[in-house]
Amino acid sequence: MADVHRTGPDALDVLELLAHRQAPRQFEELLQRARRDGASVKKLERLDRAVRLGTDIHELFGRGQRREAGLTALLDTARELSHARDLESLLKEVARRARLLLRFDLAYIGLHEAAAGTRAGGGAGPVGGGMTIRASEGDTTALNVGLKVRGSSGLGTAVLTEGAPFWTPDYLADDRIAHADEIDEVVRAEGIRAIMAVPLTCCGTVVGTLYGADREVRHFLPDEISLMCSLADVAAVSIEKARALEEVRAGTRALERERAAAEAELAERRRLETVHSDLVGRVLDGGDLRGIVGASAEAMRGTLAVRDPGGRILAATGELPPFDAAELTEGVLDAHAGGEPVPLGGGAWIAPVAASGEDLGTVLFVPADPGADPPAPLLLTARTVALALLLERSTAVAASQVRDEFLDELLAGPRRPWRHVEERARALAVDVDDPHVVVVARPEGGSQGRAVVWASSYAQRKRGLKSVHNGCITLLLPGDDAEAVARSVSDQLSPLLGHPVTVGASGPTSGLDTVRQVHREAQHCLEALTELGNTGCVATPRQMGFLGLLLCDTYDTDDYIGSVIGAVLDYDTQRFTELTRTLEAYFASGSSPRHAARTLHVHPNTVSRRLERITELLGADWQKPERSLEIQLALRLNRTRRMLAERGA
User: What pTM was estimated for this model as a whole?
Assistant: First the structure.
């Protein structure tokens, strides 16, 4: 450098400055120094030409260094992008790298939604799909990410259409761009002026757009645009790779879900097989309906109840919530019509219990955790319940046939010793020591089969026996009031058939040896009702008054007298009164209190008071013709019995 100062600046000094990578301003200082030293015009021209060339060479060196730095940064970016775990983090990293690499204020990425993408260089025309901003770096508002760009507006659409970069130094002032309100709103909110948009192209298909933006007016250089395009190419490959990986992961997850679903289905199938085996085993082992329902409710985790066709609860594991009657009725019909469970309100389900088209009832299920679908074992439970009910019915029919045969034997007269008969009765749970009544019922219309089925069920509930002969149903039932038992049979059977039922009854009796005789008395009462034209009524020997003496083998004179005027006789015995004599005198005098008073040698008022007492004892209707006839016959029998007793004494 000492020689330079000694001889004056020349072109060689410019080369030395270039060799030492000095700043271009020092080139200008050489030219100024030469002017101060009074260099010749020719020398100044040569030095000026050398300074200009040196400045250009220095600029070329700078551009090369910048390009080298950009390529180095691009390689680093490619390495970083290759390690991105998922698409969202990759897009975020691309935006961050673009912002740092080209010193943007804001960088963001939009992915196009066209089903098959758009071929680069495809020319202008309608653009399919749209674009959504997926990642942003350097933004100051929340308006950018998630922005959907439709139609042919914005830089991204131009990039998608042409497959080439597009840039503007001032977006809002640029008339070349098809503006859209939603895009312009974001641009204003972020304070953006200059925007560069380059396509994300992979395998000839534009998959999205990479944006860089400044908040000041900026004229982008060709090297900057080129570097941005290179970054976009690297990013597009990484994006497609990430998408492919996501598809693979999604496919893997789908396969895992399918495998898990298949394993769950297999496990559920095995569980159902276990539940089915357990339920059927319980049925075949003679388990009761309550045990079957309890096991099913535990398997399905909820409350379960079995209802018969009439709605009566046969078995339940807990308290059911109240159901709307109309909804429940409709649910029963739909369940039996479709042969599958039907939903009710509150998450409950109702399933049909049926066999060979016969309605055996329904199963109600209220899950502990209501879900959208019925539990798989529900229909299985309904079918198992149907099997249990059929087996129970078969067992009941068989037992009923044995009991029917036993009653037939009693009515016909047993051919075996009574000791054996009583042993058989105890085996059938018939207590021979308790009082029983015999009821003979004859339906006056309706289905006899329906009446027989009802009688079998009624006899089983009452722990009695049943037999059917010549259109009449005979029942041997526990009880000591023949009339009450007969009326109960009539009151239940008549509404069921929709026709009247004529009922004769007799008893009570203890011991099986008198059943045949009591049955004959009940049958006589039934025949008497028929002869008297009183079909559809109920009668016992006691109710039929003096006819009972003719129809009944066990209903004797004492019973008849006691049933008609027993209250008056007891009153006379306890209080030493003469109400019985007053009654006899009253009827003998033609029901005249005055004439009766003369016969009794008492005042008429005394007779009147005695008649009032008799009314209290016998009831207000004792003077009606039919009742009066019964009382007079009882008085005559009582007087005859008393006379015979006195003669015997």
Answer: 0.38
